[in-house]
Amino acid sequence: MRRFNARTLALVILTLALAAAGGLFMQKAIYTSSLSTRPFNLGVSEPVEKLEPASIQNHSQRLVASAIYEGLVYYDEAKQSVQPRLARKWKYGPDGKSITIELRKDVKFSNGKKLTAQDVKASFEYNIATSADWNNTCLYLPIAGSKEKINGKAMEVTGIQVLDKHSLKITLHQPHAAFMASLGNPVFWVMDLESGLTPPAGTGPYTLKEKSANSLQLLRNDHYYRGQPHVSALNVTIFSDDDTAFQAYKEGKLDLLDNIPPAEMANIRQNKDYKGLLIEKPVLEIYCLGFNMHRDPYANSYLLRRALNYAIDREQIIKQLQGNAYLPAKGLVPTGLEAYNKDITGYRYDAEKARQLLTEAGYPEGKGLPILTLTYNEDPGHAMVAGEVARQLAEFGIRVQTLQQGWDYYKKQVNGRAMSFFRMSWAADYPDADSYLYSLFHSSQIGMTNFCGYQNPQVDKILDQSRKQYEDPQSRLQLLRRAEAIIIDDAPCLWLFQKKAQKLISKDVRHLEPARRTVYCFMQID
To answer: Which of 24, 151, 248, 293 could form a cystine bridge with 453, CB 3.0-4.6 A?
Structure first.
């Protein structure tokens, strides 16, 4: 998220490999012969009203749209790096402020038209103009001239220049080594705006055939440049809720259930009928509690903030959460990213350490510490987490009152930094540690996405330097890890969990692997 978004948010864009060479929507699957002669049936539990890249607003929309559209790049989990998709290659200029991108020459849209650099520029500018969500358009801000286009003061983005039919140049305000990773975000997906179709034709392995309030049908794109998809059609059924979708799955009507009711997870894990059908994988989303670094008692008291981190038994909370859909988090960068440091000390439950730091902070056994107010947006799961955090802190003499708020008011309070201790989640809008470290903790982002108001000149300097390492990925990696270590030590948040994706497949699907990545940065409000 980039503006503490109120919409229902994605946990992961799930990719299934139904395309012959593996597609963006279909990453990797082995399936029985029946799936080569009938549609693949997918069940989702959110409305799928819009599919244009700049207009999609929830996970289900993004999931379906990812079968139709593609970006210039994608994230290769095995290599933990950004790889070409519609782009063939790219090169940063000598000062790091420009990127020349060369496109593949064999790409066609689903209507048969060949992809050109002008289509890319037109798609980018159309996405800027049509997106009503700042979470989308703000990703264009690193590009020169984007602000003028966003504000309606220019007809085009001067920093997006078509060089020839298959190459373009993007000019940035400052060097940004992670910028190419952002081009996989849906707001940078490419369309044929001249196709006359609604939604416009894309380059993905499937194309929309029929759409209603309760279902969609997608047919394979016979022009797909990476090989004809093996599965001829995708049928998407839109259910009113997770329970109804789960019932349809039990009746054998679905090959993939995208959202599992949390209350069903215990039975699914124990019931042998589901053996081999439950897919779980950590995704790039963290769940934490933020401290307002400009409000007492958290301001100027890193000892207190660290004490609170050591006082929480994360595994105990996870056991109480229905579905066991989290991993304990020691720090900030989630597993699945190259910059993830498995050896980082971070925070684990350590009652002795917590009491020691609490005493050093001037609050022995919690004495002298005012009642802490932990605020969260209305949701049963968030209420459970907040209540358990309050109970655990009470064991150290720390009094906590929990406060539940409706989304609209909660959003205003967080954006205005009016709360001192609050719940938040964060998932990458591009698969790079920069999306966490810079967005959440660089001082330039205070008032935007640095909700804690964290300021550390040393961290700013390191993160600025990391963005300049566009030709030295190893040096950049070390800088990112160094910045994370400092931030963790400063403890501007109480880190809790990393989210896991949980899906159910049918017995006709032998293997399916959800992608770790998410494609938007957001504050999750489930």
So the answer is: 293
DSSP summary character for residue 274 = G
CATH superfamily of this structure's domain 69-199: Dipeptide-binding Protein; Domain 1 (3.90.76.10)
Cα(474)–Cα(517) distance, integer angstroms: 21
- State how far the Cα of 383 lies from the Cα of 480, in Å rounded to an integer: 33
The alpha helices in 299-350, defined as continuous H runs, are 302-310, 314-320
Are the CB atoms for 498 and 329 separated by under 8 Å? yes
Model pLDDT, residue 56? 86
Query: 284-500 has which CATH code?
Result: 3.10.105.10
Q: Mention every residue, 6+ apart, whose C-beta is less than 8 A from residue 273.
A: none
Q: How many angstroms separate the CA atoms of 40 and 84, rounded?
A: 27
Taking each helix axis from N to C terminus, what angle separates 457-467 and 473-490, rounded to the nearest 10 degrees? 160
Residue 426 phi, psi dihedral angles, 5° rounding = -150, 130
Q: Which of 444, 463, 454, 326 is closest to 384 using CA atoms?
A: 326
Q: How far is CA 161 from CA 23, 96, 385, in A?
A: 28, 16, 49
Phi first, then psi: give them for residue 272, nearest 5 degrees: -65, -20
pLDDT for 379-419, tens place per residue?
888 999 999 999 999 999 999 999 999 988 998 898 888 99
CA pair distance 60, 10, nearest whole angstrom: 8
Q: What is the pTM of this model?
A: 0.87
| Distance between CA atoms of residues 410 and 455, nearest Å | 23
Alpha helices in 68-132 (DSSP H): 117-130
Query: What would you report as the CA-atom Rg of the chain, rounded to the nearest whole angstrom?
Result: 23
Q: Which ranges of 179-240 would DSSP assign to H, the alpha helix? A: 179-182
Residue 223 DSSP symbol: T
Are 46 and 57 in contact, with CB atoms under 8 Å apart? Answer: no
Separation CA 329–CA 270 (nearest Å)? 26
How far is Cα 315 from Cα 326, in angstroms, rounded to an integer?
Answer: 9
